[in-house]
Amino acid sequence: MAGGIPTAAPTLTGGYLTGRALIFPLSLIISLFFLWGFSYGLLDVLNKHFQTVLGITRLESTGLQVMYFGGGYLLFSPIAAEVLKRRGYKQTILMGLTLYSLGAILFWPVAHSANGNSNGKAVFGGFCACTLVIACGLATLETAANSYAIVIGKPESASARLQFCQSWNGVASFIGPLIASKYFFSGENQDSLTNVQYVYLAVSCAGAAVAVLFFFARLPEIPEAVIEDEDQAHGHVALGSFWKQYNMWFAFGAQLCYVGAQVTIATFFINYAHENGGISTSKASTMLSYALITFTVGRFFATALAMVLTSGFIMVVYTLCAIALTAYVSAGHGAASVGVLIAIFFFEAPMYPTIFAMGTKNLGRHTRRAAGVLVMGVSGGAIFPPIQGAIADAKGTRISYIVPLVGFVYVLVYVGVNWVRDGMKILQPKASETSVGDESSEKENDNAIYEQREKKGDDMA
């Protein structure tokens, strides 16, 4: 591959990868989701920690989410999508890892400057700037990794494949609060930022290590011609310009509302558990890690469920459950309401990857740019928390949970319409339902297309 990569990345011109050939590239992509999950898990805990140490309000503390989801994902995702279209997956991923590691290492001098500094808001501004750099890196990784997980294998299993990769995001996300409950909120560390320095130094080193791994790896590239040929082979062609892909734009709205709901639920979890459940801050941080474990279990469970049930049906049922539980949280009291709040994490788990797969299916040459648009939807995490923070400061944290409830309602409308358009199917079609004649005809058609792609690859060489 151009750009100084010592080991050229092979170009996949003979169709999608299947079976064991998927293991290595997907393992590399999973490592990126792991980094993203760990960073996100720390973000929600730092939100509360900065309130305590730097003396800022709940509304002001959401500046982290504004920088993370607004500055990084909303503003930088289109840039990442353009780099992906022009330079390919590998170089885009390396750019993302560089930004990620740089932002993490900058936490060290900012945290160090907090010692003896009475201006907590100025220090918090420095942390917001570091978070912005990390978010730009993660937006780049998300744009490349989500798209790659979908296009590297067969379209029929794209949703389940992306859900499986994103499940490892959840595995990492609950490690962050566990670390925080031990090193941020315990003993003398309750009022100190010293350990923040060491945690983010480790984060930076991890990002650099993964970057070295990608630098030398032979990551298969998938040209847009391959994606478009496959869509044509199965009768799926993205007609019209990029701006007329209306399903993608509605998916962007659903992604924005879902991520906004997810982020607000987690951001104010510790506040809710402490105020409404009478639980200490340290124990509430540990419970947040349990909630994120629940989220992770929900991702793996939904991946298995997607092998039997259609993703549209799963999403309709899960979103209805999320709406009901969030309504209870905004009205309930005591420890029971905290338990219900944890249960929401299970039902929201498959929403992001499923909406992403729904919004990018059958787009052919538009697939890479569409990935950038869908990742921009993550900016909902910058819009919803300030709204909820303002309501929480004025009316209390419990009442503020009406904000994610509204987000889930929009998601229900989008997935419900998609499910109806797909025929309201509940069960996945069985392989045996395809006739032998149809299979042989499809195989001949695929062989012809693969030969054509190989010829294209030889011409390009």
Structure commentary:
Pfam families: MFS_1. Keywords: Cell membrane, Glycoprotein, Membrane, Transmembrane, Transmembrane helix. With about 450 residues, this protein is an all-alpha fold. The protein has one domain (about 20-225, about 235-440): Growth Hormone, Chain: A. It is about 75% helix and about 0% strand. It contains 21 helices and no strands. The protein has helices spanning about 25-55, 60, 65-85, 90-105, 105-115, 120-150, 160-175, 175-185, 195-215, 225-235, 245-265, 270-275, 280-305, 310-330, 335-350, 350-360, 365-375, 380-395, 395-400, 400-420, 435-460. Helix 11 runs antiparallel to helix 20 and helix 14 (about 310-330) packs antiparallel against helix 15. It is globular, with a radius of gyration of 22 Å. The chain starts with about 20 loop residues before the first helix and ends with a helix. Mean pLDDT is about 80; it is low at about 1-10, about 435-455 and about 455-460.
